[in-house]
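Need tokens for this chain, all 146 residues.
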Amino acid sequence: MKRIYAEEKWCLGCHLCEYECAYANSGIADMVKALKGKDIFPRIKVEDGDGVHFAVNCRHCSDPICVKSCIAGALSRDGDGMVLIDKDKCVGCYTCVMVCPYGAIMPAEGGKVAQKCMLCTDNQMNGEPNCVKHCPNRAIVFEDRG
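Here are the structure tokens for all 146 residues:
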């Protein structure tokens, strides 16, 4: 299964991936209308520290503790191994947020449900998630590494 991988040696810490993620998941065709003057809630986040920057997103683990811990059954794995979240089932307990070892699950806009990277399955452009497509330094890649 293809996953998003961070190449921290190439990350500039520009946070463009966060804006591209928020835009791709906004449902609005115009980036300015989607993001200007608004708080953004991306499903990927850049961690900065001591001169090192890297993107954190869902790793779609082979044995995901978030799926096991979800009291509402909102998290599951599909046949390809992708970890999915059903926002209609999510009760906002944030157990998944607390147990994710990577910090890749976070509150969604409004704070009533959790959100995570879904590899832009609903809005993928040219076969790549938006964050990967628009990373100026290829610090985020979409690959199957076996």
